[in-house]
Amino acid sequence: MESAAANGPQPPGGGAAAPTPAPAPRPAPKLARADGGAPFVLLHVAADGGGSSSASGGCGGGRSGASSARTSGSGGGEGGQCQHHPAERPEAPPPPPPPRLHGAAAAGDAGARIEEFGTAAAAAPRTEIGGGGDGGSVASSDGGADGGVDAFVSGAPRAAAAAAKPAPRAAFAAAPLPRLHLSHEHPAVLAAESRPRPPAPPPRRPLRTLARVYLLSPLLLPLAAALWLAALAAGLAAALLVAPSLALARRLYWACPFIPYIWRGPARARFGRAGALLLRLQFEGAHCATVVGRLLSLPLRPYLPAFYIAGFPKCGTTSLAAYLRLHPDLAGIAGMPGHEALGKESHFFGGILGPAAAGARAAALYRSFFPTVLTAWWRAAARGAASLACFDATPTFACMPHVAARAAAVTPNAKVVFVVREPTAAVFSAETMLRGMGVPLPWSLAAPPGGGAGDDPEAAAGPQAALLRASWGAGLRGLGERRCGGWAGDAEHDALWAALASLPPDAPLPPGLPAAFYFRAGSYLRGAQYADRLAEWAAHFPPENLMVVDFRRLVEAPESVVREVLAFVGADGERYRFRRLPPGMATNYAGAKMHPATRAAVARRWFAASNTSLFRMLGVEGLPGWGAPFEGDA
Ligand SMILES: Nc1ncnc2c1ncn2[C@@H]1O[C@H](COP(=O)(O)OS(=O)(=O)O)[C@@H](OP(=O)(O)O)[C@H]1O
């Protein structure tokens, strides 16, 4: 190793480089190169002024950790590439003492340059190392007072190194020098390079690649496009069907608020959570498809009902509708396949399509529930139907406010059939049905008197009576709640029904009305006060258009009753073929029976006057079995 000062010529553009006092010689470290070459230049910056030293050159730089000075390397201009070819390097002479560098060695674009800034450097003359065209530059700036830099500038031409004047100092002469390695000589790098490498993969055959691209892409691209289109179609279908499905299901649940209880209760118990969910999706999907299909095919649907089976709930309306549908000329609702009740009940005037059921578009919308002309043609061809007459059998029509007015506005000439059943039996049938659906009713006709719908609920003690009173609310305010309700005092009942009666017929019904109707014992009891409900219909339809059917006769002599109804609605009885059908919407009592005392108390308190009014309306002394529950009733 040789000193830059010893070997370097004066730089071409060099400044005033003055020699510095010679430092005390120190033992030069033995730095062996892996390739055996030794073109290293050791730059030593004195502790009294040389703080940081940066060396730039084609080989990069390193940090001299002991000196806290910086040594960095970069390309040194156009000619700043380091060459490390051992063949070009002469034998290394015995190392002289390292030079002491105080100044900058500038070599223009192509030279090595060493600069030193700082107080000591300012006082000291500058030393410049002139590069020979391929050298790096070394700059030394002020850093710490005690710092020094030992830097090996590799690849610097001997000429550039020789330009530096030796300026060793005693403090650095004795300093231990770290052992550094150039990147391409670092043992870790060399070890990594000497490691065996996995064999390179054989070069791809361009022909096979081409074959893949040109032969498979015609198959894969259409497949990918088809998959993409299918996903798009599924997304669109979901967007188009799911949203209306949810909206329509909500309308349906508004009209029949007990249906969601089915998914939570009996359906889960029978089919499990996933099964109940699937059942619900099927139901809502079918309902959505049915309603959307009906609305889309509205131009093909010219029919409005010729008559209604308007009530009463749990009085055999499903059976009567089924018997009437046996007639070739009569058609009910174009219902949901597989859903018995919704195949007969539109719930239209009760608000299943919202306020539109009462507005100017009501007739147009209502037609969507009835069959198309295609059905009429098919019936004429296959069953010899003369003309098609449609009917709507929604049993809650008889009990809901304003339905009579709305129906009369749309179909003023329609006939209306009511089936009446001994009221307590009808209410108990409803209670049993709702309970079977999982509706947690807080009232029961099976309970002893005072336990709910008893003789004097206001004075009744016990948790059930407290719940009944608490759950009622007051007037219309109570209609908003979705929870099941129960008993109300007479005053509250009167206020509620008066408030409902005061609504304009084309006003939307209160949001909680169906829930209030189905889940409140009071509403059910009011619904079974037939005389009052019939009076409302009689106010909107001529009396000759109204017919009352006794449930008991429907059970005992269904054909006679059906023929009477056929004659009433104007259907040709000659072409009617009767066949006995199983009871529709039969409730599973599972051994439950009305409590006799409760039944007697409710009949007396709630239905005695109403029944008397009905008998007077009908011009009869009474109806068989109405003094006591019909034997066929539980
Ligand atoms: N043919 C015949 N024989 C005996 N009982 C019969 C018959 N047809 C209907 N029913 C009974 O009527 C009750 C159902 O009435 P609805 O169809 O009007 O119910 S609903 O309002 O439509 O839900 C329901 O009463 P319950 O069983 O007491 O709940 C049916 O069993």
From TrEMBL:
<protein>
    <recommendedName>
        <fullName>Sulfotransferase domain-containing protein</fullName>
    </recommendedName>
</protein>
<feature type="domain" description="Sulfotransferase">
    <location>
        <begin position="307"/>
        <end position="572"/>
    </location>
</feature>
<dbReference type="GO" id="GO:0008146">
    <property type="term" value="F:sulfotransferase activity"/>
</dbReference>
<dbReference type="InterPro" id="IPR037359">
    <property type="entry name" value="NST/OST"/>
</dbReference>
<feature type="compositionally biased region" description="Low complexity">
    <location>
        <begin position="101"/>
        <end position="110"/>
    </location>
</feature>
<feature type="region of interest" description="Disordered">
    <location>
        <begin position="1"/>
        <end position="35"/>
    </location>
</feature>
<keyword id="KW-0472">Membrane</keyword>
<keyword id="KW-0808">Transferase</keyword>
<feature type="region of interest" description="Disordered">
    <location>
        <begin position="47"/>
        <end position="110"/>
    </location>
</feature>
<dbReference type="InterPro" id="IPR027417">
    <property type="entry name" value="P-loop_NTPase"/>
</dbReference>
<feature type="binding site">
    <location>
        <position position="429"/>
    </location>
    <ligand>
        <name>3'-phosphoadenylyl sulfate</name>
    </ligand>
</feature>
<dbReference type="Pfam" id="PF00685">
    <property type="entry name" value="Sulfotransfer_1"/>
</dbReference>
<keyword id="KW-1133">Transmembrane helix</keyword>
<feature type="binding site">
    <location>
        <position position="421"/>
    </location>
    <ligand>
        <name>3'-phosphoadenylyl sulfate</name>
    </ligand>
</feature>
<feature type="transmembrane region" description="Helical">
    <location>
        <begin position="213"/>
        <end position="242"/>
    </location>
</feature>
<feature type="active site" description="For sulfotransferase activity">
    <location>
        <position position="314"/>
    </location>
</feature>
<feature type="compositionally biased region" description="Gly residues">
    <location>
        <begin position="48"/>
        <end position="64"/>
    </location>
</feature>
<dbReference type="InterPro" id="IPR000863">
    <property type="entry name" value="Sulfotransferase_dom"/>
</dbReference>
<keyword id="KW-0812">Transmembrane</keyword>
<keyword id="KW-0325">Glycoprotein</keyword>
